[in-house]
Fold this sequence. Notes:
There is one protein chain. By secondary structure, the chain is of the alpha+beta class. A hairpin with a 5-residue loop joins strand 16 and strand 17. The longest helix has 12 residues. It folds into two domains: 183 residues, DNA ligase/mRNA capping enzyme (D-amino Acid Aminotransferase, Chain A, domain 1, 2-Layer Sandwich); 107 residues, CATH 2.40.50.140. It is 14% helix and 33% strand. About 4% of the residues have low confidence.
Amino acid sequence: MTKKPRPKPLLRETEPPVRSRPRRRRNPEQPNLPLDPMPERIEPCLATLKSKPPEGDDWSYEIKWDGYRLAVHIELSGVRILTKSGHDWTKRFPEIERGARELGVATAILDGEAVMYDEQGRSDFNLLQTSLGGRSGKKTSPAQFVAFDLLYLDGHDMQNTDLRVRRHLLADLIGSAESPIQFSETFDATGAEMLEAACIHGLEGIIAKRLDRPYRSGRNDDWIKIKCVASESFFIVGYERSTIGFSSLLLGAYHNGQVVYVGSVGTGFKQNEVANLQTQMNKLIWKKKAPPVRYTGKRDVVWVEPTLIAEIEYRGWTGDVKLRHSSYKGLRELQDNAEVYRIED
């Protein structure tokens, strides 16, 4: 009769016990910090518009850049470039992607703005939009990325760290003057001095930030924006007919959850933009009998669905809540999460 094989013991009594290799003692000079998981996406911190800058040693002052807000995610698997609302625009900014790969950091999330500059060295939203092919374009842009915050670095979530520390680490990370990724400098001046200088040089304005605050998503008073010339986003709700297509655009803003008419804009259009804008509006002709906003004017208006969002510069408001001295800057991208202006009571 065949004997059943006896199970072989893992250890014999005569063999020494198995021991793991002793761990190397940690160098007490090195911090023993746990690694934080890298966020898939961080809602951006948004600045609150004020008429004048705050003052004090707890505030820093930067240029307000006129471009697209982006977050650059440097990950072990590669680089992702996300818009304000989380759309992946990596392929549309190959130069910024290259610059991120060359930073020499394993993981990081940079908050900043994609910009292009005019002949005077000022950031120009219209130039950037044109390089991307307009609102529905698929072109790539040679834009630069101006980084102004660091939200994650080499396994560590920096959001609960003071801005002063985040900015110090960010400045160390960005070194090359030739890189498509540049550091948004602060200036040793009061808020009033900084704003005056920005307006003299034809810039859009400045941003004031609390140095002792963590990074808080959403709109809050930790970041304050002050503009030399007011610029906001409005719905295009119609256009006034003319022999060349349109002579002006009718604009809308939110008020108590409804879109209301806030005036028109008839200047600022570049010749190469007019035909494309007309084509897009023709696809959105309003089909209902009543217009999309309450309107008592006498113009020959073609109403359109309030879908297209235009960036408009203006000098103030009239007593009946209409824009004064408005000028067209360009269409905002839906993916850029443009915030249509809201009229407060």
